[in-house]
Amino acid sequence: MDRDEEMGHGDRSLLFIGDEDDDLGADRDSGSPPTSSDEGSFSERSDDEARDDRGGRGRDAPDDGQKGTWPQSYRQSIDMLSAVPSPTMSTLMVASPSLTKFGSSFLKAGSSFLRKGEGSALPLTRPLLPPSLSQLSQSSMHQPPVKQSTDNIGLPPRPPAAHEAELPERPSRACLKSNYIELPPPASKCSSGQSIINGFNVLCGVGILTTAYGIKEGGWLSLLLLPLLGGSSCYTGLLLKRCIDSSPNIETYPDIGQVAFGIFGRIFVSVVLYLELYASCVEYITLLGDSLSSVFPSAHVAFTGINLNAHNLFAITMALAILPSVWLRNLSLLSYLSAGGVIATVTVIVCLFWVGIGEGIGFHPSGAAVNLTHLPVALGLYGYCYSGHSVFPNIYSSMKDRSQFPFVLLFCFTVVTIVYAGVAVTGFLMFGESTMSQFTLNLPQQYIPSKIAIWMTIVNPYTKYALTMTPVALSIEEALPQRVQSYLVGMSVRTCLVLSTVAVALLFPYFALVMALLGSVFTMLVALILPCACYLSIKKGAVHLWEIILCIIIIMIGVVCACIGSYTSINRMISR
To answer: Which protein family is named in the record (predicted)?
Structure first.
């Protein structure tokens, strides 16, 4: 029995540099590839493997100088954003840094705390980011070798190459072991059922509120875009899976971009993904302002010449209320609240049908068959509903049985497409041409289900904002020079990010049009264009002709939709 298991460190959530035994236990439980020579880097693959995986292209994955490439916090932060945690005591204890810094179980955490004494206090000048790569190399050179573990992989360990025998541990792994990052890695592999729930948690977002408005903009025939976009997105999700399978060291979307197009591909993919998350936070602020102003329409502030209507007032006050949660260094308990996104979505759907059937509003057929002028707006709204590809590689990497991923993906996309279409039809039949950007704003306030639906749309973005902004904040903090990295600087960065989202939300208070712009630009890039481009680059020479043609068609569709949709959305916002 390992020392970790004897000491109760089986599901450690916080990792520390230099604690070899704890690191080994964390690697085993998280299901991630082993560290050191077991884990290796992209460059450890032989030339033959590279030629096989790349279809004879001969370009290896990142070399030794690129191992610590930005961003290193992507995997953990996105895992916490997407995963629905199991409510066990050990994972709940993660939210208490004073206990879990020294173990995940209560007894071992307490005993470790007594042994550590006063050394666990967090000074304000404590470095916010991991040590530099040179410091990591020097420290790991003086550390005793770590016992290799192959418990979590089915393949035998690959012996290190001669030129890698003296290389330190992979910097990306070491960076995640810094005690600055308190984002819990996956404690265990996910079952297929858990992966389906995680997929629903990603896909069932605020986009469902605008599907009825999509019919108003594009007409009834615009509903045909839902299965078209859903089927294309499902296929490109499978392409991401094949990209991950091409190398045992690929786990995230930025990794795929790096293998496909080098270091610039990694940076470009990362920037696009982070911009998408930042824009989602802007939409959360707009949604909170719209929803609360519908509940309290007469609220306003007039002070020293400054007049704030209900929407602007609630957008600012809710951002200030959210700000302390963004400062948190450990968001484990908040991730439990965010995991209720699926429950909140189901509740809103039930309330919509309840009001339509039980409260006597009824359904009234109306509307045009198609509206070509505003069809690009509907295209962007529907596209935003399938913006989950940034998380799919993480879900796939964390599955126990990866062969079930195609079924998980197909099941999730099929269910959410049916749900989106059903909500769109129901909402538009209830409200017709008066349908607003969020159908919850059309619900009569005097009915109890209407109040429940509105407050659900308020609580959901409030709890998800911090988790959505954390990956963006961590990526910026990683890029800061070492001399300015501190806890206070990190708080300042996060404060500026929150204030900037408020400024953008107040400058463009058009929930549906901004969402259509996001769906046209980012979703088409992340869900259609980049997966096909990366797949063709990685598997060049080993792809069937029909796949090449299909990928090129999807890329062309994505480019055309992105251009037309973004132009129409921007033009509509300017004309208002």
So the answer is: Belongs to the amino acid/polyamine transporter 2 family. Amino acid/auxin permease (AAAP) (TC 2.A.18.5) subfamily.
Question: Residues with Cβ < 8 Å from 317, sequence gap 6 or more?
Answer: none
> Cα–Cα distance between 303 and 314 in angstroms, integer?
16
Distance CA 30, CA 11 (A): 8
The answer to whether 439 touches 209, Cβ cutoff 8 Å, is: yes
Look up residue 42 and give its two tokens: 């992209």
CA distance 278 to 439: 24
- How much is the pLDDT for 190? 80
CB 348 within 8 A of CB 422: no
Check residue 108 and give its pLDDT: 43
Nearest of 319, 322, 382 to residue 515 by alpha carbon: 382
State the DSSP string of 46-110: -HHHHHHHTTT----S--GGGTTPSPSSHHHHHHHHH------HHHHGGG-HHHHTT-SSHHHHH
Q: What share of the chain is helix, strand, coil (3-state, %, to 5)?
A: 70, 0, 30
Indicate the length of the chain as a whole number.
Answer: 576
CA distance 284 to 281: 5
pLDDT band at 406 (very low <50, low <70, confident <90, very high): very high
Which pLDDT score, from 0 to 100, does residue 334 have? 65
Given the structure tokens 């909402």, which residue do they identify? 427
- Which pLDDT band, with edges at 50, 70 and 90, does 199 fall under? confident
Closest C-alpha among 307, 12, 344, 36 to residue 186: 12
Give me the pLDDT at residue 287, please: 93
Please tell us whether the domain made up of 188-575 is placed in CATH 1.20.1740.10: yes
Is the preceding omega at residue 145 within 30 degrees of 0, hence cis? no
Q: At what angle do helices 253-295 and 448-479 cross, to 10 degrees?
A: 140
Tokens, residue 3: 């020392």
Sequence-ordered list of residues with C-beta below 8 angstroms from that of 256, at least 6 positions apart, any chain: 240, 243, 244, 250, 269, 393, 534, 538
Listed residue (331, 347, 336) closest to 453, CA to CA: 347
For residues 297-315, average pLDDT: 86
